[in-house]
C-alpha cells in the first residue's frame, strides 16, 4: 500500500481512529495536494475494520476539507481551505461566543500586515485587480449586495497579493460574517459624504499597494479599520 503502513490507535471510536490513521498516512508519506490516496477498501484491510467505517472516516475528512472525494475517482489530498474555520467562526458569532467587534479587531491586526506584504510582493496584475475592486465598489452605488461582494473580494485580493497562504485562508474565513457586517456598517453611513469617505479609504489603500509603499499601505489600512470599527459601534448602539 505504501512505504509506511497504517494502524489503529488506542481510544476513540473506530471512525475517529480511522480518520487519524488516514491523516497519519498522508503526513508520513509526505503526500502533497492532489496526490491520490489508497482506496477505502485498502485502508479497511490494512486497519482491520469494515468498509462502512472507512466510508464514514473519508466523509469526515472531506467535510474537514482535508481530502477531495468524488464519484468515480479515488480520494485526493485537498488544498488548504478556510471554509471550516469560517463555519466555526460564524457559529461562534451566532451563539454570542465572539462579538463582531472582536472579529473586526482581529481582522485589523491581520490586515495591517497583509496590506504591508501586498505593497511589497504584489504583481502588476494583482495591483490592477485591487484597484479595479475599489472602483467596482464605487460603481456599485446603492446596490449593497454588489458592494459587499466587491468589498470582500478587495480584502481577499490584498491577502492574496501578500503571498502568505495562512493569512489568505484566515481572511477568507471572515467572509460569511462580512456578508452581514458590511451592510450593517454601510447602514450607518447615511450621507453621501460619509459613503464617499469610505470609498476614498479603499481607493487610497489600493493606490499605496500599487505604489509599493508598505508604510503608507499599513497606515491606509489602519485608517480604514478605525472608521469601520467606529461604524460598527455606532450600529450596535443604535440597535440597543
TrEMBL record:
Signal peptide: none annotated. Keywords: DNA-binding, Transcription, Transcription regulation. SUPFAM superfamilies: GntR ligand-binding domain-like, Winged helix' DNA-binding domain. CDD domains: WHTH_GntR. Coiled coil: none annotated. Residues 12-80 form the HTH gntR-type domain. GO terms for molecular function: DNA binding; DNA-binding transcription factor activity. The keyword Isomerase does not apply. This is GntR family transcriptional regulator. It comes from Sphingomonas aerolata. The lineage of its organism: Bacteria, Pseudomonadati, Pseudomonadota, Alphaproteobacteria, Sphingomonadales.
Amino acid at each position: 500500500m505504501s512505504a509506511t503502513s497504517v494502524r489503529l490507535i488506542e481510544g476513540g471510536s473506530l471512525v475517529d481512529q480511522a480518520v487519524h490513521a488516514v491523516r497519519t498516512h498522508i503526513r508520513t508519506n509526505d503526500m502533497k495536494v492532489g496526490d491520490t490516496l489508497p482506496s477505502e477498501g485498502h485502508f479497511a484491510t490494512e486497519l482491520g475494520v469494515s468498509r462502512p467505517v472507512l466510508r464514514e472516516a473519508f466523509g469526515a475528512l472531506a467535510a474537514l476539507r482535508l481530502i477531495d472525494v468524488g464519484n468515480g475517482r479515488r480520494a485526493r489530498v485537498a488544498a488548504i481551505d478556510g471554509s471550516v474555520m469560517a463555519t466555526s467562526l460564524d457559529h461562534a458569532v451566532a451563539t454570542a461566543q465572539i462579538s463582531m467587534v472582536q472579529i473586526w479587531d482581529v481582522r485589523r491586526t491581520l490586515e495591517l500586515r497583509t496590506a504591508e506584504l501586498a505593497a511589497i510582493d504584489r504583481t502588476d496584475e494583482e495591483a490592477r485587480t485591487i484597484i479595479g475592486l475599489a472602483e467596482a465598489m464605487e460603481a456599485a452605488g446603492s446596490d449593497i449586495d454588489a458592494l459587499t461582494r466587491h468589498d470582500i473580494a478587495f480584502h481577499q485580493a490584498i491577502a492574496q497579493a501578500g503571498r502568505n497562504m495562512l493569512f489568505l485562508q484566515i481572511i477568507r474565513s471572515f467572509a460569511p460574517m462580512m456578508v452581514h457586517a458590511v451592510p450593517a456598517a454601510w447602514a450607518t453611513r447615511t450621507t453621501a459624504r460619509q459613503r464617499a469617505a469610505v470609498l476614498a479609504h479603499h481607493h487610497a489603500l489600493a493606490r499605496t499597494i500599487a505604489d509599493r509603499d508598505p508604510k503608507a499601505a499599513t497606515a491606509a489600512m489602519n485608517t480604514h479599520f478605525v472608521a469601520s470599527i467606529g461604524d460598527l459601534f455606532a450600529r450596535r448602539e443604535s440597535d440597543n
